[in-house]
Amino acid sequence: MDLVWTIIIQLVLSYIATVTFAIITNVPKRALNACGITGTFGWMAYWTLMQMDSGTGASSLAGAFVVAVLSHFFAKYKKLPITIFNVPGIVPLVPGGLAY
């Protein structure tokens, strides 16, 4: 049960962090939810691999890859530039970002 709560907390806080950064960088309102989803999935890929002792490099690569793929998908779906989703989506993976 403790693991379930940890996963829920990771999901919620990574979503909030991504959407908050997207708001700060003036992302259009119609893209905020997609930015949050992008950051959340990227963080969960990173966090999951870190829990499996894959190492920081492999975990960061996997998280960044997930962010890139989802950013590309949402850019096509929302007809917006990919950087709108890519930049806020990568924020949870920035070293030292947990300090915020």
What brief labels describe this structure?
100 residues, globular, mainly alpha
What do you see in this structure?
With 100 residues, this protein is an all-alpha fold. The chain has one domain. The chain has helices spanning 2-24, 32-51, 56-78, 83-90. The protein is globular, with a radius of gyration of 13 Å. It starts with a helix and ends in a 10-residue tail after the last helix. The model has no long low-confidence stretch (mean pLDDT 92).
Q: Report the span from N to C terminus.
A: 27 Å
Count of domains: 1
Largest sheet: none
Q: Tell me the strand percentage band.
A: under 5%
General shape: globular
Number of helical segments with 4 or more residues: 4
- The string of secondary-structure elements, in order, is HHHH
Mean pLDDT: 92
Our Rg estimate from Cα atoms comes to 13 Å
Instruction: Report the uncertain regions.
Output: none
Write down how many β-strands occur, each being a DSSP E stretch of 2 or more residues. 0
Helix proportion? over 70%
Describe the structure concisely for a colleague.
With 100 residues, this protein is mainly alpha-helical. The protein contains four helices and no strands.
